[in-house]
Amino acid sequence: MTLPEHCNRTAVVTFRGEDGFCVFDDLETVLRLGPQWTVEALRVEENLCSGMPFEVDVEFDSSEQKATLAGTVERHVPGRLLAVTLVTGRATLRLFLSAQPHISGHEVEMRFECDPPPSLHALREFDMWARSILNYMQISAGRGFFTKMWKYFLDRWWLKMPQFGKRIVIIVLIGEAFSLAMLIGILLWWKIF
After folding, report:
1. In this structure, which of 104, 133, 177, 179 has its CB flanked by the most CB atoms within 10 Å?
2. Residue 15 — very low, low, confident or very high, per pLDDT cuts 50/70/90?
3. How confident is the prediction for the chain on average, in pLDDT?
């Protein structure tokens, strides 16, 4: 079985404004949304521009190894396009995000390319990364009070949390939901019988 060298995801999203596209201007958030690593530090200038180099310190989730990735912002159009190249010792990863007007909203295209070709596990991680970016864009575009609170929580704590910490939080929440369901079941059983 041969694996493709890239992962594409295209989606049409409807926003009431341009708030959802703020992620195109925030390189740190884009990198933190990646499920394969925890971003520990990002060294980049304040304003993104095409051709700008940067370095990012990450800890890979699967191997728990730390690495410094050298990168370049290949192209950047504020709120519309972000093309980034990341280089590790063994591989080169290219990330391309773009948004174009569409009849029913905006068409968002995300493409991840890897040289050498990625493993099936890496392709799944790229797909999860793309879905995370889309979900973050939809949350950023929300105007309700609870949506703004959820975005504040994501920016303030969740995206800065290591991957194993996120898994622990999810396990605790599942356990607490199960405990609550058991309590409700016991109370109903006690009330009925």
Report:
1. 133
2. low
3. 85
Amino acid letter at 154? L
From CA 148, how far away is CA 142, in angstroms rounded?
Answer: 7
Model confidence at 47, in pLDDT bands (50, 70, 90)?
confident
Report which of 102, 126, 128 is spatially closest to residue 15, judged by C-alpha positions. 102
Contact 113, 97 (CB under 8 A): no
- Where do the H-state alpha helices sit in the chain? 27-32, 120-141, 145-156, 163-192
CB proximity list for 10: less than 8 A, separation 6 or greater:
107, 108, 109, 110
What is d(CA 96, CA 81) in angstroms, rounded to the nearest whole number?
8
CA distances in angstroms from 69 to 55, 59, 72, 123, listed in the order given: 6, 10, 10, 19
